[in-house]
Design goal:
This is TonB C-terminal domain-containing protein. It comes from Mangrovimonas spongiae. With 169 residues, the protein is an alpha+beta fold. It has one domain. It contains 3 helices and 6 strands. The radius of gyration is 24 Å and the shape is globular. About 7% of the residues have low confidence.
């Protein structure tokens, strides 16, 4: 009995001294977009490092697209070809990074119905919105203390029966 107790005590002491090294790494913020070589353009680079990409709540400057929102609306109205289908209703959110040179990359797509429940849209709609967004070349270069910065951007497309109804924000 005494030997069993000593053996258990020894194992407990040994286990307390054993350090486990965590191999899990966490993103800085929920929603940070890491480079994914399988889907991202390998030429796109953030200028100041992934830990310095500004979130929406860090931005105090105005429009991030030359010509403001009306120019974005006009662009999509002229290039988007509706895919009429009464089941294609909800929101498609494209989230991406604009680097310090005004280049966009690391595009991510989120899709939901009008109640914000996950939904999958027809790829013809999603791919079209993604292609138009990727081809935009007029993103503003934002500055903080006269230094150009990298920042997150998003566009939310409101879709009703396959037609583009609005672009938010």
């Amino acid at each position: 009995m005494k030997k069993t107790f000593i053996a258990i005590l020894f194992l407990m002491i040994l286990s307390c001294q054993t350090k486990t090294k965590s191999t899990q790494s966490y993103l800085r913020w929920v929603g940070d977009i890491q480079q994914n070589n399988a889907i991202d353009d390998s030429d796109f680079r953030v200028c100041k490092g992934d830990d310095n990409v500004l979130q929406y709540f860090n931005l105090s400057e105005g429009p991030v697209y030359k010509g403001e929102k009306s120019s974005i609306l006009d662009l999509f109205k002229s290039q988007y070809k509706p895919f009429i289908d009464n089941k294609q209703n909800g929101y498609i959110r494209l989230r991406f990074i604009i680097n310090c040179k005004g280049e966009a990359g690391r595009f991510r797509v989120l899709q939901s119905d009008y109640n914000y429940q996950e939904k999958t849209f027809d790829n013809r709609i999603v791919n079209q919105l993604l292609t138009i967004t990727k081809n935009i070349e007029k993103w503003e270069i934002l500055h903080r203390d006269d230094i150009s910065v990298d920042y997150y951007m998003y566009l939310i497309f409101k879709i009703k029966e396959g037609q583009l109804i609005d672009i938010l924000p």
